[in-house]
Amino acid sequence: MFDVFKPAKELIKIKPDSVRIDNYVFKLHYQATFIILLAFSLLVTAKQFVGDPIACIVEEKGAVPQVVMDTFCWISSTFTIPNLNNGRVGTDVIQPGVASHTDQDEVKFHKYYQWVCIALFFQSILFYVPRYIWKICEGGRMKTLALNLNSPIVTEEVKRDRKKLLVDYFVSHFHQQNSYAFRFFICEALNLVNVVGQMHFMDLFLDGEFSTYGSDVVKFTEMDFEERSDPMSRVFPKVTKCTFHKFGPSGSLQTIDSLCVLPLNVVNEKIYVFLWFWFVLLSIVTSLMIVYRMCVICFMKMRTYLLYSRYCLGSFEEIEIITKKCQIGDWFILYQLSRNIDPLIFKELISELSEKLKDKQRRDAYLKNAEKLEDKQHEDCFIKNKHIIFV
């Protein structure tokens, strides 16, 4: 049976990136959370195959075969009585929510435990979607630009040629990189949308119990033993009821009640406690990243210091000159390059690039002045000709 899960080993294997095109918060989504959810999905799936996921007690011996009762209760779902969740075990109820009931009592069917493994797998795939979209949008550009300059062991000739290509590319595509940067920022925002959306999805999946599940568990551990009501038993009951209808010997309708033990819910309750804390932490970290990204977009001074933090071997003036001339896309390309090439090579790249930009600025200023002078000459000539014609 475990041979079925062998292909998953390749899927969850973490390989070091030769070129970094994202950040650590991004990795928390498509690596850490993806692996956590996939591992939980495989664990729940395995528990359904190893041992019995459900075991039911039939009141009348021989009334219904044990296998039939277990299978029926598993596929049709079991139920509890919500208004009996706070009863005293052994006095008022058998287990939380499990006691004798009438047709007037409200019952709550627990169907979601059958779908936990599928839901977790589906969620793991969704956490990889923003990364997949970004890889398509990125198109290997950073790998092409890095040109294996992340290794200090490069011959001077090769290093000089590659630096020249990189500087020429940057100058020729100056102020044309904004789309690259904003695609990444949109994918970062998709991570936040995804984690918040999945929290709402799990709340719907667990009949509105997930939103306060973790906080209820914390409160439960702090209560006195006599007063506390276990929220995990309410959401994932270990003992439930099941009703089976059959025909009797005379053709009359018989109703058979049974108690069912769900050992799989012992695993499910722990999984969702962990996921509640993990998703809350992940949503907070991702929200802070979005705030940080907005500050980077809005404040040029912040971009200057961030790039300088990657350029500790050079002067602050060179970074300031470049940042003032760069748009957000140009800055983002440089910042990503600083994470993918050797610091010494990046220092030389910044120095050459600053000189190129200075030359470009002087050339543009010269052409602009020449254009103004030419316009002035044309205007003087026009006035002179107009005066001659008038005379």
Your description of this structure?
- The chain is mainly alpha-helical.
- The chain has 14 helices and five strands.
- Strands 1-5-4 form a three-stranded antiparallel sheet, covered by helices on one side. It has a two-stranded antiparallel sheet with strand order 2-3.
- A hairpin with a 5-residue loop joins β4 and β5.
- α4 runs antiparallel to α7, α7 (178-205) packs antiparallel against α10 and α11 packs across α12.
- The mean pLDDT is 81.
What descriptive keywords fit this protein?
3-stranded antiparallel beta sheet, 5 strands, 391 residues, elongated, two-stranded antiparallel ribbon
Topology, pairings included?
Blueprint: H1 6-12, H2 24-49, E1 55-58, H3 66-76, E2 78-80, E3 108-110, H4 116-138, H5 141-146, H6 156-172, H7 178-205, H8 213-222, H9 231-235, E4 239-247, E5 253-261, H10 264-298, H11 300-309, H12 316-325, H13 328-338, H14 343-390
Antiparallel strand pairs: 1-5, 2-3, 4-5
Helix pairs in contact: 2-4, 2-10, 4-7, 6-14, 7-10, 7-13, 11-12, 12-14
InterPro entries: Innexin
Transmembrane segments: 24-44, 112-134, 180-201, 271-292
Subcellular location: Cell junction, Gap junction; Cell membrane
Structural class by secondary-structure content? mainly alpha
Rg from Cα: 33 Å
Helix-strand string: HHEHEEHHHHHHEEHHHHH
Mean pLDDT: 81
Instruction: Estimate the strand proportion.
Output: 5-15%
List low-pLDDT spans.
Answer: none
Strand order of the largest sheet: 1-5-4
Task: Report the sheet with the most strands, covering strand number, pairing sense and barrel closure.
Answer: 3 strands, antiparallel
The CA-CA distance between the termini, in Å, is 106 Å
Per DSSP E runs of 2 or more residues, the count of β-strands stands at 5
Query: What share of residues is helical?
Result: 55-70%
